[in-house]
Amino acid sequence: MENVDRLLASPGVKSSQPGRDFGMILKTLAGLGYGATWKMINAADYGHPQRRRRTFIFAFREDTEFMKTVHRVNKDSILEVEEFLMTMAPLTSTLRNKSVQNIEFVDLNQYKSLPEFSQKFLVKRGFKKNRLYD
C-alpha cells in the first residue's frame, strides 16, 4: 500500500492523538491476520526533480515464513530488534538501511475495540519513518 507521508502522524502532530489513523490501519491489518512494515521514501532519491515523500506499507500474512522470522526476534533485546530492522530488505539498492535509532515499542493491542482505539490511542509525534509491526 502507498499513501502520503503525513499518514504516519495523522491526524497531525499537534492533535491530541498523533499517529491514531496509521495505528488504526495497523490494528485493522492485525485483525485480518497481517503484520506490517513501512518505510517513507522521497521521490528525489529516485532521480525525480521533486521532493515528494510517500509512505509505503508492506503487509504480510501470519502464515508466511517472513512472519515466523518476525516472531523469532526477541523483542526483549533492543540489539536483536535493531539487527533485524537493519537486515530487512531496503526498497532499492541505493536506499540501504544505515542505522536504527530510538526504538519505541507501541502496544496496539491494549484497546479491545476499534472505537476504543480511535478514542484513546496516540503515539507521541506520530509513527517513525520505518518500522515493523507484528
Descriptive account of the structure:
- With 134 residues, the chain is α+β, with helices and mostly antiparallel strands.
- It is 28% helix and 19% strand.
- The chain has a four-stranded antiparallel sheet with strand order 1-3-2-4, with helices on one face.
- It is globular and about 45 Å long.
- The model has no long low-confidence stretch (mean pLDDT 79).
Provide a short characterization of the protein structure:
The chain is α+β, with helices and mostly antiparallel strands. It has 4 helices and 4 strands. The model has no long low-confidence stretch (mean pLDDT 79).
Write out the strand line-up for the largest beta sheet, numbering strands in chain order. 1-3-2-4
**Radius of gyration, taken over Cα atoms and rounded to an integer in Å:** 15 Å
Seen as an oligomer or otherwise, the chain set is: single chain
In N-to-C order, the SSE pattern is EHEEHHHE
How many beta-strand segments?
Answer: 4
**Share of helical residues:** 25-40%
Major sheet: size, sense and barrel closure? Answer: 4 strands, antiparallel
**Share of β-strand residues:** 15-25%
Class per helix and strand makeup: alpha+beta
